[in-house]
Amino acid sequence: MARARFEDTPASARLSDGTLAEVRRSEYAGGWELQVDGTPQSHVDLDDPTHLHFEYVARMGAVIDLLRMPRQPLTAVHLGAGALTLPRYVDATRPGSRQQVIELEPALVDLVRSELPLPKGAAIRVRIGDAREGLGRLPAALTGQVDLLVSDVYAGSQTPAHLTTREFYAAAAGLLAPEGVLLVNVADGAGLAFARRQVATVQAVFAHVIVLAEVQVLKGRRFGNLVIAASPAPLPSAWLPRLMAAGPHPAKVAEGRELEEFARGARVATDADSTPSPRPAASVFERGR
Known about the structure:
- The chain is of the alpha/beta class and 289 residues long.
- Helix content is 27%, strand content 26%.
- The chain is built from nine helices and twelve strands.
- The chain has helices at residues 55-65, 85-93, 106-115, 131-137, 166-175, 193-203, 215-218, 239-246, 256-263; strands spanning 11-14, 20-25, 32-36, 39-44, 75-79, 98-103, 124-128, 146-151, 176-188, 208-214, 224-231, 251-254.
- An eight-stranded mixed β-sheet has the order 7-6-5-8-9-11-10-12, with helices on both faces. A four-stranded antiparallel β-sheet has the order 1-2-3-4, with helices on one face.
- Strand 2 and strand 3 (32-36) form a beta hairpin.
- Helix 1 packs antiparallel against helix 8 (239-246).
C-alpha cells in the first residue's frame, strides 16, 4: 500500500522548476491533498474517488455526470495530472472509460502514483510532456472521438499563457466528438479581466459555451475558479437546473445573452499576445481553523 496511507509526514518531490510538490493529509476534508509550492492543487479520497472536495472540481463533476447516458463509458483526455482526481472520478462513475492524461512533470506523476495509487484495472494512461504539444502526439484514432477534454494546467499557481489562446482551443476542438465537451478551469480575481478574455477566446472557437461559478466569483468580488464548458453541439437547457442543484452553493450558470455581456469588449487571446492567468495573493489559500 502507499506510504501516504500510514504517515503524517508529507511525501514530497522537487519539480523541474525548483518548486516542491507535497502529498499531505487533508486537515479539512479527509483524504489527501497535493500541494505545489504551497498552492493546493488537488484533493483525493482514496476510499471514495467520487468525493470531489474542491468546488470547481465538483462543478466539473456535475457536467461529466450529464454526458451521454449515466454509467456509459467515456473517452476522455485530461491536460494536467494533479493528483488525478477527475480521472479517478470518471473511472469510478463510468466503468470502462478510456482516459489519457498529459502532464509535464514526471516527478509529480511518480509522487502521485507512489503515494496515491490508482485503482487496479483503471484504463488511465499518463503521458509526459507539455499539454499543448501532447495534444498533437495523441493517437490519431482519438481525433473527433473524445467525449470529454479537461484543461486544468498550472505552473505553480498560474495557467501558462500558451494554454489560453484561440490556437490552443482550436487544437482541442479537433479532438472532440460531435457532442463532446471541453471543460476549462479559469482562476481570476477582481474585475475578471482574464476570465472575460478566456470566455471570449473559447467563444471564438466553440458555438456553445456556458460558465459555472460561485456567485461572488462570477461577479468579480473575490478571487476564485470559474468553469467554462464548451461544445460544438448545443449544451442542453435541461442541464441547467441540474447543474445549479448539484452545487456547491450558491452557484451560478451563465449562458446566452448574460455570457455575451460578460465577455463584451474582451479581446480574443492569441499566440501573439496571450498572458498567463493572474497570480493569486498568498492569502487566497489561507484557511481558518
